[in-house]
Amino acid sequence: MRNFNYDIPTKILFGKNKVEEMMPEIKTFGSRLLLAYGGGSIKKNGLYDTLVTLFKKNDIFVVELSGIQPNPRISSVREGVRLCRAHKIDLILAVGGGSVIDACKAIAAGVNYKGDAWDFMIGKAQVENPLPIGTILTLAATGSEMNGGAVISNDETLDKRPMGHPSLRPKFSVLDPTYTFSVNKWQTGAGVTDIMSHIFELYYTTDKGVFVPDAMAEALMKTCLQYGLVAIDEPENYEARANLMWAGTLALNGMLSFGKLPGDWATHMIEHEISAIYDVTHGAGLAIIFPVWMEYVLDADNAWRFAQMARNVWGVSEKDDLTAARQGIEAVRDFFSRLGMPSRLSDLNIDGTHIAVMAKKACVYGDLGNIKKLKIDDVRSILEGAL
Ligand code: NZQ
Ligand code: ZN
């Protein structure tokens, strides 16, 4: 195990009606709130009305930023920064999935920065003194509710870039699984795929002897297997929604990387390039790329790790590591497909037109990955293998 500092300061309020305990958390930071949300799902499922009543009762001044899109745009971030400055906002409350939360993190970073918020995405500025944010999660997927990362898209340049800073971790997050009852089959399947993909990214390092993070990762993968299809078939199954919600949060709050290298992340970087150009659902892009990436990087040196997952998670009993690894990859592909996810880029009407550009942009900061370093040509081969 490598050295590490355990530090995950986000307070979690988990369970039914936990929103009722949120006001003291808000009041710690003040009484002027930016309420940010997406395209209206929170109005349909009643959460918006609950919040408005709560804020009125507690004398909270509220400014709204609505319409934050999936694959959130820098234009929403700029508007949020403007609103926070104009109304002297104390705290940003993100109500939604990863897109709303990510946009709010970028807004939080931008408010006390003199330049344009896109600068954070291109490494031109470092986050300093961000506004505090809190979240109410409505979709189990990204883990953004308990981490310091954000991914923002730029319509003009067709870029999608990650940023991150420990100070952007939400101060608190409300995780009420009943809010996810209204998530449709597609987004539920994409969310489960994203959770599993985060676990894969963190699992696939060259480190050996890291039994604790490996075993935790395997338990979270099994949770996705146990409950992913249940949540799709029975959207109001509390047990399934609750287990998936907590799995999604734990998958990317740092817990799985303590004591080892911080993960591979090549697949995510490749998927972001697909989303940047084609605006696809993040989880759907991952469902296509992950099995192809696994087949591409698998070799005799790292087969033990693939085989370990195949045996511990997918019930493969094969003794030979390489054969077991291949059976595990097939099991992953089959599970994503049962979640309703696509398996080829052509399923999303994506052809080879932009592959060269995507490969180049994915490697803009250098080689990708950990378990095997990928160069531009490798990324191109993976994308071609996914067509
Ligand atoms: O906009 P509304 O109307 O709310 O509808 C949303 C949206 O259309 C809908 N939805 C959310 N909660 C719902 C609901 N519909 C019904 N009932 C509810 N309770 O779901 C759609 C997708 O929402 P979105 O927030 O985009 O999904 P997700 O949580 O999967 O977030 C994806 C974004 O997060 C980034 C992805 O790249 C993508 O941009 N990621 C962020 C990460 C992070 N910050 O740590 C890591 C991830 O790897 C990922 O890259
Ligand atoms: Zn992801």
UniProtKB/TrEMBL annotation:
Domain Fe-containing alcohol dehydrogenase-like C-terminal: 191-386
Domain Alcohol dehydrogenase iron-type/glycerol dehydrogenase GldA: 9-177
Coiled coil: none
One GO location term (cellular component): cytosol
InterPro entries given in the database record: ADH_Fe/GldA, ADH_Fe_C, ADH_Fe_CS, BDH-like
PROSITE patterns, alphabetized: ADH_IRON_2
A Pfam family: ADH_Fe_C
Record keywords, A-Z: Oxidoreductase
Entry's Gene Ontology molecular function annotations: alcohol dehydrogenase (NADP+) activity; butanol dehydrogenase (NAD+) activity; metal ion binding; methylglyoxal reductase (NADPH) (acetol producing) activity
Family per record: Belongs to the iron-containing alcohol dehydrogenase family.
Name of the protein this chain belongs to: NADH-dependent butanol dehydrogenase A
Record organism: Geofilum rubicundum JCM 15548
Lineage per the UniProt record: Bacteria, Pseudomonadati, Bacteroidota, Bacteroidia, Marinilabiliales
